[in-house]
Amino acid sequence: MADSTNDAVPASSEYDKIIAVNINRIYKVRQHDTEELTEFQVLKNVNLTVKKEEFLVIVGPSGCGKSTFLDMVAGLAQPTSGEIYMDKKLITGPALDRGIVLQGYALFPWRSVRKNVEFGLEIKNVPKKERAEISQRFIDLVNLNGFEDRYPHELSGGMKQRVAIARALAYDPEVLLMDEPFAAVDAQTREVLQGELLRIWEKTKKTIVFVTHSIDEAIFLADRVVVMASNPGTIKDIIQIELPRPRDGIRASTEFGKLRQEIWQLLQGQHISTEELQTNENLHNEAV
Ligand SMILES: Nc1ncnc2c1ncn2[C@@H]1O[C@H](COP(=O)(O)OP(=O)(O)OP(=O)(O)O)[C@@H](O)[C@H]1O
User: Fold this and answer.
1) Which atom of ligand 1 is closest in space to residue 71's alpha carbon?
2) In what residue span(s) does the ABC transporter domain sit (predicted)?
3) What is the number of other CB atoms lying within 10 angstroms of the CB of residue 146?
4) Global pTM?
5) DSSP state, 143?
6) ipTM of the complex
């Protein structure tokens, strides 16, 4: 579905890419015992601006509405009230200007790596020769050179996720929407993919909205981290991540530790001391 212009576009600067205004999402849920329909508010008054070429990461407790919000930016779901604009145009449905990378890869099992990456280009009617050139460029970019003719079941989890990223990038969307894309891979592969994603982002200058449960992943990747609270889903705070880039080796720094503690406290809604933080080794990459 195409996006349409809207008279009531909110004031925005030339640096704004996506603007969400007063987003509310209410589901009607049937009670098992009485069969009555009750309202369940998932998102309440969410206002958020994503800047052009920004890497924005959203963290928050399970069920706070992160995926719901991302689905709305993708145009796959509609708010009950409120609007989301991209480049001052109201988002009313999905379009190729927004690429989506989900947890669990969602590759086409009957298509080879090359054919998966070419999918969006086929929809855009890009001629065959050009398609082959573009797909090869993105296969190389995600370090899958030599695997072009493999099928998804012949790849590791990390490789499948690389294909999903290459597929989303190949048709050149302006915005990349990523919903826990690395949740299904092992910790080591996850760090490799995070590094690769940053390298690709710096090279391609996309605007990225990325959802994760991992505080470390959020800090490592983001320009800003949006911390959400649940019941109903609201934005609790937005933390600017001013760590220098490139960020290789940054996880061990004091600044990184401070940010980890700050976000952890926000998510817990309570104060915990540095000592407590350090004694909990699992906290590093723990799901929130
Ligand atoms: N179609 C639906 N009908 C009713 N409730 C729904 C529906 N879809 C989602 N929800 C509810 O909305 C809430 C938010 O879901 P959402 O998947 O956006 O949360 P999330 O923050 O992404 O969670 P997680 O981190 O666990 O993936 C959840 O409580 C979920 O049960």
Assistant:
1) 18
2) 21-255
3) 10
4) 0.87
5) T
6) 0.97
Packing angle, helices 128-141 and 157-170, rounded to 10: 130
284 alpha carbon to ligand 1 midpoint, in Å?
25
208-247 pLDDT, tens digit each: 999 999 999 999 999 999 999 999 999 999 999 999 999 9
Domains of the chain are 4-97+173-285 (3.40.50.300)
Q: Whose CA is nearest to atom 30 of ligand 1?
A: 63
DSSP symbols for 125-138 = T--HHHHHHHHHHH
Residues belonging to the chain: 288
Q: Best mutation site among 67, 78, 213 for ligand 1, i.e. most ligand atoms within 8 A of its Cβ? A: 67
pLDDT in tens, 30-86: 877 777 888 999 999 999 999 999 999 999 999 999 999 999 999 999 999 999 999
Residue 252 C-alpha to ligand 1 middle, in angstroms? 34
